[in-house]
């Protein structure tokens, strides 16, 4: 599964359900996400469950030039564990989206 | 052709009336023999006038014809039955309260958007034709619980591509139902469908990758009723492109055990944008998915996170690229695209 050059933004929390841009779960090993503009998602830009291994999510824009928050040290959308987000894009990918 | 026929009709009527008027010579001014002769002449003219009126009535009321054939038909089914395989049946503007079944290779072409509106049953059934059937330019009002068009290929044995295009289909439970056939569905407007337990603008059930379903430039408007989806494609090779699907209760586009391309679609105000199920070879690109609705807690019992792109089977080869997934907000938005 390749998730490439999409604009994924503005999910919100819905009660107990968290707003996540991209979620990977149920032992979904092998997913990759690159060159996406991921921003404005309420809880996580990307969330991966423990059974799915580490997701290759390099070269994405996380909504801030200093990279994702959460596990990351930046101020962009949060990423959880098992997300290989570095390197990240310092600016949105102009070719992303429809 | 119809205009020409109408013009001819008026000329005939004028002719008949003028003859009738000329026959009304004051009877009292005539000799008895001349009077009997005039009476016979008048009666013959009256009979001629009546004959002309009857023939003209039939001509002007006939709405259906077969291209290249001088015959006229009162119903679509009569023309379909009379047509040779490969013919084109022309359906002129009007209302046709009938159920049409097509079992041979034909083109049925509506001119001026004729309306097919039976009180019950399937308005238009394509029943295992030996060859392609093209349906175009018809408006269809579908009775409750029925598909507007049911294209049944019965095992897809003819390997010909059927076509449904430029039709407006309203009501019923399914706009277009395709079973075991190759079908190209283009530029149709489908709305008002509902029913239990599910209803769809388009439902295509194939036999695997040999079944070709192409749906392009259609507009599908759903309803906020349970089980309402835009389109579902099962077991086929697909090209779903440049469709506008909105306001469905569940998924705008749902594909199951299918491979192919979903691209350039505008999906608005649906609960789920694109739902790939066991479809490992799909390419999903350049779609705009916005204002998708929230999955409720009961439908998401495991309390999984809500996301635009949701992956639960990453081992497949599906690609999701260059889509714009926006505006997921509380009470009206959630998943843009998900794949598992």
Give an overview in words.
With 98 residues, chain A is mainly β. Chain A has one domain. Helices cover 0% and strands 35% of the residues of chain A. Chain A has strands at residues 2-4, 7-9, 19-24, 32-34, 37-39, 44-48, 55-56, 68-70, 76-79, 83-84. In chain A, the strands form 5 sheets. A two-stranded parallel ribbon of chain A has the order 1-4. Chain A has a two-stranded parallel ribbon with strand order 2-5. Chain A is globular and about 30 Å long. Chain B is an alpha/beta fold and 340 residues long. Chain B folds into 2 domains: 2-61; 64-339, Pectate Lyase C-like (3 Solenoid). Chain B contains 3 helices and 32 strands. The longest helix of chain B is centred in the N-terminal third of the chain and has 30 residues, at 32-61. Classes of the chains: A mainly beta (98), B alpha/beta (340).
State the secondary-structure class of chain A. Answer: mainly beta
CATH architecture of the largest domain in chain B: 3 Solenoid
CATH topology of the largest domain in chain B: Pectate Lyase C-like
Overall pLDDT of chain A: 87
* Biggest beta sheet summary of chain A: 2 strands, parallel
Number of helices of chain B: 3
Rounded radius of gyration of chain B (Å): 28 Å
Secondary structure elements and pairings:
The complex is a heterodimer of chains A (98) and B (340).
Chain A (H helix, E strand, L loop, with lengths): L1 E3 L2 E3 L9 E6 L7 E3 L2 E3 L4 E5 L6 E2 L11 E3 L5 E4 L3 E2 L14
Parallel strand pairs in A: 1-4, 2-5, 3-6, 7-10, 8-9
Chain B lengths: L1 H22 L8 H30 L2 E3 L5 E2 L2 H7 L5 E5 L2 E2 L3 E3 L3 E6 L3 E2 L7 E4 L5 E4 L2 E4 L4 E6 L8 E5 L2 E4 L2 E6 L2 E5 L2 E3 L7 E7 L6 E5 L2 E3 L6 E7 L2 E5 L2 E3 L4 E6 L2 E5 L2 E3 L3 E6 L4 E4 L2 E3 L15 E6 L7 E3 L2 E3 L8 E5 L1
Parallel strand pairs in B: 3-6, 4-7, 5-8, 6-9, 7-10, 8-11, 9-12, 10-13, 11-14, 12-15, 13-16, 14-17, 15-18, 16-19, 17-20, 18-21, 19-22, 20-23, 21-24, 22-25, 23-26, 24-27, 25-28, 26-32, 27-30, 28-31, 29-32
Antiparallel strand pairs in B: 1-2, 1-3
Helix pairs in contact in B: 1-2
């Amino acid at each position: 599964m390749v998730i490439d050059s999409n604009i994924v933004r503005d999910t919100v929390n819905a009660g107990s359900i968290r707003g996540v841009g991209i979620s990977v779960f149920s032992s979904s090993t092998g997913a990759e996400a690159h060159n996406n503009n991921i921003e404005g998602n309420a809880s996580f830009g990307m969330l991966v469950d423990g059974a799915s291994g580490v997701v290759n999510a390099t070269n994405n824009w996380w909504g801030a030039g200093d990279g994702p928050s959460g596990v990351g040290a930046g101020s962009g959308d949060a990423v959880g564990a098992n997300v290989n987000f570095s390197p990240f894009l310092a600016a949105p990918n102009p070719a992303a989206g429809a | 052709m119809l205009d020409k026929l109408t013009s001819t009709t008026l000329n005939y009527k004028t002719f008949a009336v003028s003859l009738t008027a000329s026959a009304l010579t004051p009877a009292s001014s005539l000799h008895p023999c001349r009077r009997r002769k005039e009476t016979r002449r008048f009666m013959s003219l009256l009979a001629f006038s009546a004959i002309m009126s009857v023939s003209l009535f039939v001509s002007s009321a006939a709405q259906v014809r077969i291209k290249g054939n001088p015959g006229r038909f009162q119903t679509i089914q009569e023309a379909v039955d009379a047509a040779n395989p490969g013919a084109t049946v022309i359906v002129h503007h009007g209302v046709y309260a009938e159920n049409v079944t097509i079992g041979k290779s034909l083109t049925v072409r509506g001119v001026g958007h004729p309306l097919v509106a039976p009180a019950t049953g399937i308005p238009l059934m394509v029943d295992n034709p030996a060859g392609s059937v093209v349906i175009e330019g018809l408006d269809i009002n579908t009775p409750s619980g029925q598909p507007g068009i049911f294209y049944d290929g019965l095992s897809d044995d003819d390997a010909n591509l059927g076509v449904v295009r430029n039709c407006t289909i309203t009501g019923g439970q399914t706009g277009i139902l395709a079973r075991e056939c190759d079908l190209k569905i283009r530029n149709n407007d489908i709305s008002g469908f509902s029913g239990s337990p599910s209803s769809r603008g388009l439902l295509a059930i194939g036999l695997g990758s040999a079944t070709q379903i192409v749906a392009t430039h259609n507009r599908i408007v759903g309803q906020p009723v349970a089980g309402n989806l835009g389109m579902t494609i099962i077991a086929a090779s697909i090209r779903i492109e440049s469709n506008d699907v909105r306001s469905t209760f569940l998924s705008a586009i749902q594909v199951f055990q299918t491979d192919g391309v979903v691209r350039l679609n505008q999906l608005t105000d649906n609960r789920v944008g694109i739902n790939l199920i066991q479809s490992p070879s799909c390419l999903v690109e350049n779609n705009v998915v916005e204002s998708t609705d929230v999955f409720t807690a009961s439908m998401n019992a495991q309390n999984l996170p809500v996301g635009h792109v949701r992956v639960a089977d990453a081992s497949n080869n599906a690609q999701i690229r260059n889509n714009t997934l926006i505006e997921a907000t509380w009470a009206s938005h959630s998943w843009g695209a998900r794949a598992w």
